[in-house]
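Input chain follows. Return structure tokens only.
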Amino acid sequence: MTASNRPLSPHLQIYRWQWTMTLSILHRATGVALSVGALLLVCWLLQLAGDGGGYRGLQDFLGSWFGRLLLFGWTFSLFFHLCNGIRHLVWDAGYGYELDTAYASAIAVVAASGVLTVLAWIAGYMAMGN
């Protein structure tokens, strides 16, 4: 057998970039972001149970523009992971494999994630009485 310079399996140079590839990668990335966000939540809860000094510092950080940006991203990650997980459950049931349906559901996941994120932030803003 002679050695071949061909890749053993198709790779990104072979495939055309698609919505489904993007959402698959984002699903993994949002899972990681949710894990990091959960650590931040645990840190916040530990500071809340502490003497109060660390809590005020963490609240100041989370109230800054960068902290709010992180929280907004975490909120989007939560809703994206939820919506895309529901999409995967539908696939597991054997539906939605048609190409047009897969693309439509991908767009619906991104749109629903954005809308749910904005609605959650509006609801949170209104609940704070601002």
